[in-house]
Amino acid sequence: MANTQEISAATGYGRPWADAHEIDSFDRFVADFHAGRLGADDFKRFRLQHGIYGQRQPDTQMVRVKIPWGGLTADQIDRLADLAARTPRGVGHVTTRQNFQFHFVPLDDVPDTMRTLGDVGLTTREACGNTVRNVTVGHCAGVCAHEAFDPTPYADALARFLLRNPMNQNLPRKFKIAFSGCADDTGLTAIHDIGARAVVRTVDGLAVRGFTILLGGGLGPAPQLAQPLEDFTPAGDLIATVAAIVRVFDRQGNRENRNLARLKFVVKKLGIEAVRTLVVKEREALRLVLAGTLPAITPWEETAPPVRPSNGASAPSRDPAFTRWRATNVAAQKQTGYVTVHVRLVRGDVTAPQLRAVAEIARDFAEATVRATNQQNLVVRWIPVSAVAAVYHTLRAVDLVAPGAERLVDVTTCPGADTCQLGITSSRGLALAISDAIERELGGLADESGLRVKISGCPNSCGQHHLASLGLYGGSRKFHGEAAPTYQLLVGGRTGSETRYGRPLARIPARLAPSAVKALLEAYRDERGTGESFDAFTDRVGMERLAQIVAPFTELAPSAEAPGHYVDWEASARFVPETGAGECAA
């Protein structure tokens, strides 16, 4: 099996991101805070810069581990398992930005948690706060048959250039960057402050690698699609171009109103042409000022590992569960003889034993590497076709063979009101209810590809609800004078070469949301044309017809007649709309 040293010598896996000195500094700052030598606001800014986020529960923290481009080694997965085992719920959580989160961590335990991560090269630095957040990459990069080239080495170099860089430690607001290697855009570049799509152009008869750089995208209450900076940016100009965009944002971003502080608002205010002019001018200046000091990017390619013998497990030929799992969770790579196994994590959660099983599979068959996805799952690449059955048996032993990865039944959700101070509703509870309803009552649609449900517990879209075929975000409304949790239902969102945001359809009480979703999906199942996608179906029938379908689920009876409808999912007490001061832009 491969070890971390061998991996990092050939690729970016396992190369450390941690800094022991800043962990020691965090320990001192915690002591100063407890002793009253450091004010609460100053400590909060420092804490967020180091990826430690306050939960809605008093005296507990969420620790966010930054996983650039989602790349992890088996050793790092094992260490994440150790941390998951320490948490009250016994789980880690994979986010839509390829990070790992651990909840309910006491502040005094944070320095030791950071050291535990640092021992295997992982860091929490700049996973929160007004900084450049995690640089993400579509999980199929390097193994996709349609990609121009693997953008991972470029994302890795950019992430290392930006991490701890003084120019992005106090931005007007958070800043997000994503890469994709192909037109399928699994990196979701159109929704980011900067998106980079790999392209190859012929220049003077030579094939030149580069990117289509998009800027000014974002979700939240005012979603906006990113727009191209220029026709083609050579790969050699990538870091200078990104640095220029960040510097323009630093100067032009709104520091008075954090609700208007993202790059998308700079583009909206100044216009894309003006922003392009500022960026190009800034890039020219950087080329002169930083000539010879910008890091060179050395591309790497993941190569096929030697095929190792499996443990002798054979495919359960008459097991429909295995047949379905293989059809939905196993995808061929462009490298002949190898597949990628998608490990579906229900609600993004994964236990310590499950993480250790994934690490074992990675060591035994996959060059000891794993990637987190922006769909809250894990993927293990470079699995020999002959080892698929062995992988299935290992995953099944830890209850990790849920089928339908990145299909309809695989519902995306943010943490919502369970832990987030901005959360209004229990998005996690609704996600499980909808997923269970799809599996139980709409089995024929459960594994549909290109049809997704995504949920956020507030309008901020951490669950990517704008991108879903059926998206929902949490709120509240009074019925008969009493507050009940509700969701705004959006339809028709899509990703890919033509990203489109979902359109608002109706506000649905939380307890009726599974029924509304089910009614829309049943209408699609019963009325669609041959080969008609859900997007095409909704476009054809129109919003008025869709509104008629969900109309029976938009009102509630008085609480005396239906008390359960005034209680949120996975809650026991009557709903009270409560939110705190969010820290995502503090």
The CATH top-level class label of the domain at 133-297: Alpha Beta
Indicate the overall shape: globular
Main pleated-sheet profile: 6 strands, mixed
Content of β-strand: 15-25%
Class from helix and strand fractions: alpha+beta
CATH architecture of the domain at 133-297: 2-Layer Sandwich
Based on DSSP secondary structure assignment, what is the total number of beta strands? 21
Radius of gyration: 23 Å
> What is the fold named in CATH at topology level of the domain at 133-297?
Sulfite Reductase Hemoprotein, domain 1
Question: Please, what is the average pLDDT?
Answer: 94
- Poorly predicted residue ranges: none
The percentage helix is 25-40%
User: Mind telling me the CATH superfamily name of the domain at 133-297?
Assistant: Sulfite Reductase Hemoprotein, domain 1
Helical element count?
15
End-to-end gap: 44 Å
Defining traits:
alpha+beta, Sulfite Reductase Hemoprotein, domain 1, single chain, 5-stranded antiparallel sheet, globular, 21 strands, 6-stranded mixed sheet, Sulfite Reductase Hemoprotein, domain 2, 586 residues, 15 helices
Write a concise synopsis of the structure shown.
This protein is 32% helix and 19% strand.
